[in-house]
Structure formats: structure tokens, C-alpha cells
Amino acid sequence: MFDLFKKNENRGPKDVKAVRDTLLRFIKEEFQKIEGGEGRNIKGVNIFIGSSAGEKHIYEAAVYIDEQDKFKEEVQRIADDYALDIPDGWEMSIDFIDEYPAEALKVDLLNAAIFIRTKENTLQRSATAYLRVLNGEAEKKEYTINSADGKMNIGRGKKVQVEDGFFRLNQIAFDAESDSESNKFVSRQHAHIEWSKENGCFMLFADDGGVPPRNKVKVRSALSENLVKLHSVSIGHKLAEGDQVILGESAVLEFSYSSEENKDG
């Protein structure tokens, strides 16, 4: 299924400069497609690298892994060359992963993929939605989320201490003391949902505990029945009516713009 990720030791650039030049050329070609002032809609560039262990040091050097601002500066120069007018504060992330996100574009001849994040025209300014617990034990059977709420954290336990020593409040909390097998695979900092003004919808993001090699976040679309796996904390998924969000192995939340509780009333 993931043939693009098979390592082929006999093809593609083998030295640092060639890998860097190939990455930058690919980004330039993608930037060329959005000439004409559309560059101001660019929010960030995500680079995903799936090199073999033997070639990882080449890719690390190619993207200046210890000085990532240097690679960002190279990308900025490309944007300037094409007068793309990228807004200040655009972000770049570089992740070494085992599986490419579905949204990312594979770079020919490299074990790498690129995703350019953009903001789209907003048609909807606010909304209320609902998350129903289909499997697992949480504080509520149904949660109400509003576009004005900000970030809504999802995890195991209400108030939990995470790796950096600080405490995190999970507004959507699976019971940490539950005997439910599904709850055991929900991380303390698994995911979050927030309203996107740019996209006019609620977005689901994986957090540190919800990306491989730890636990997982998956979404099954009610429309296409496609399964989407979240592999990066920086790329969100646009939630649509009927989407089922799978946390870990089997805890499931269903997203909807209508309340099941109101229907029952």
C-alpha cells in the first residue's frame, strides 16, 4: 500500500548537496504553481523524511537539522524570487517519519514528501458541534463544542501531568480509572480540536501522545469511508458531519453538527 515509502538504495541523490538541491527544486516548482499573489495564503511548509537508517545523516545535514532556520531561509529566498509575498510568521517543520501523511506530495527520487499549508476562504464564521462517545468511557456521553471555545483537549484523565512537568486540562476526558480496554490506549495528551477561521470548520490535531510511535489518531469519513491517519502534530484534519475519530486502538468519538441528546428530547 505504501510503495512510495520503500527504500531504493540504487536511485536518487546520495550526497548532502544533491538532496538539498532536489528538495529546494521541488518546493520551488510547487511555489511556482501559486504565483500571482496567492503566496499570502501560505501558512507553512511541512517536510516529511522517511530515509533509511543508513542515509538519515545525509538528510539531516541536507535540511540543517540542528539549524532549521537555515533551511527556512533558503525556502524564503525562493519565495522572494517569485514575489510570492509569503506572510510574516509562516512556519516550517521537518519530521522524520515511517509513513507519509495522505496530504503530502512525494518528492521524486527522494525518500521525502512535502506539504504546503494554505489558508482558504472562510465561508462560515462560527459554529456549534457535538462529539458523541461511541466506544470507551468518558465523563459525558456527548460533548458540546463551540467555535469560541478555543482549543479543546482530548485525553485520558481530566487534569494530568505531562512530560514537560506541566499540567494539561482535558476538556474531553476519558476516565483514567476505568476498566474499559479502550481507555487504556488513550494518551494523556492525545489530540485536540479547535475552530479554524481560515477554513471555516473544526479541525482535529494529533498531540504528542497521539502520533507514532506512541498511540494513534485515525479518522473514518462518513462520506467516503476512507481512513485518514494523523502522523504530524502540525497537520490537522477538517472534521465533517459523521466523521468517526478513533483514539488509540478502539476509543471512538463521532463528530456531528446536531445533538443526539436533543433528538432524544
Brief descriptors of the model:
265 residues, alpha+beta, five-stranded mixed beta sheet, 31% strand, disordered N terminus
Write structural notes for this entry.
It is a single chain. This protein is α+β, with helices and mostly antiparallel strands. It is 16% helix and 31% strand. The chain contains 4 helices and 17 strands. It has helices at residues 16-32, 56-62, 68-81, 260-264; strands at residues 42-49, 91-96, 105-106, 112-118, 128-135, 142-146, 152-156, 159-161, 167-169, 172-174, 191-196, 201-206, 217-220, 227-229, 237-238, 244-247, 251-256. The strands form 4 sheets. The chain has a 6-stranded antiparallel beta sheet, with no helix packed on it. Strand 5 (128-135) and strand 6 (142-146) form a beta hairpin. Helix 1 crosses helix 2 and helix 1 crosses helix 3 (68-81). It is globular. The model is unreliable at 1-10 (pLDDT under 50).
